[in-house]
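EI: anyone free to look at a 391-residue chain?
SC: sure, send it
EI:
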Amino acid sequence: MASKPATAKKSLSSPRHLHPPAMDHEHIALVLQGGGALGAYQAGVFEAISLIPSEPHWVAGVSIGAINAALIVGNPPQQRVARLQEFWNLVTSTSSMFAPIFDHQWSAMHQMGASMASSFGVPGFYKPRMPPPLFQPQGTDAALSYYDATPLRATLERLIDFDLINSAAVRLSVGAVNVRTGNSIYFDNTKQQIGPEHIMASAALPPAFAPVIIDGEPYWDGGIVSNTPLQYVLDNREQKKTMAVQVDLFSARGKLPVNMGAVLARQKDIQYSSRTRLCTDNSAQLLRSKQAIQKLIAKLPPALRNDPEVQRLMDATSTSHLDIVHLIYRQDIYELESKDYEFSRATMLAHWNAGLSDMQRTLDHPQWLCMASDEDNVTVYDLAHSTHERS
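SC: here you go
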């Protein structure tokens, strides 16, 4: 039987001593997908990661992944988990329901929690527009969205030190999309000053939220174009041995639906998974092709290797070792299409503890990192666990 939130703890898990794998990576990137209420899973994953001596050098996120990323980068290491806990306790503070005994009862409570968030909003995050958009002046934020995200700005300003973010001690990148051009863009603290508006733009999913205006341009949630910032990280990483830990909230793979609720849930999974496996596989193949070109050039006579055209080819194909660690949340049997906006306390704890458990299990078995070969410049580790495997 799948694990049920009925067994979820009433408080966030306490850290325990871990034995992290021996790693010689020069650069560690944490990549966080969008997924609304499911983002508590990423917070649980980070609680386990926070116990590793080597902190992430770069955190990239989209939507709720951008909010989690800003909470991480915008706080000193010793306060990051506490700030994540404070945020997730705040947004689930109006629904602390206890889980029923049976799966079908939990599904009903799950739907009730989603209905509460839809009808009354989420504390510290958003509140419904009154009157609704139909009765608002055209062109205003109120006419373009069902919810007012002003509470989120106050929450971000209270929980995040934006001066720390802009010191660029840890790199932060958050994805959004320009409403006018349809082009994806990443706000990056190594390229510009980051404020609450950049995080809110990354999380402004229409039609729930209005576009966020930055430097005269309107931006929506980056998940509209790509819900996973992995490609941006791979395209912009330094020439150092890198580990990219990618935490996804929607699974591209799944079972054939058996009812309409499952159809809607499966559609959302496919839509927002952003074909991350294909992106990962294509990136790995590209890096292997570059490595093959480098090996071929090395076999050329010195006179040819020094040819300007060959030198340009060498520069274009220069790369360094990359490990992609892929961890995917697998939904429980009770979860419905509304799983990404169901902000009940019990479900949040279940998501958090699932992320913590999955990452702890990974770190407790460090032999997974010994699979890399010097002959292969890129290695992909799929560490996704189904709910049936969770203890």
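EI: The mean pLDDT is 84.
SC: 👍
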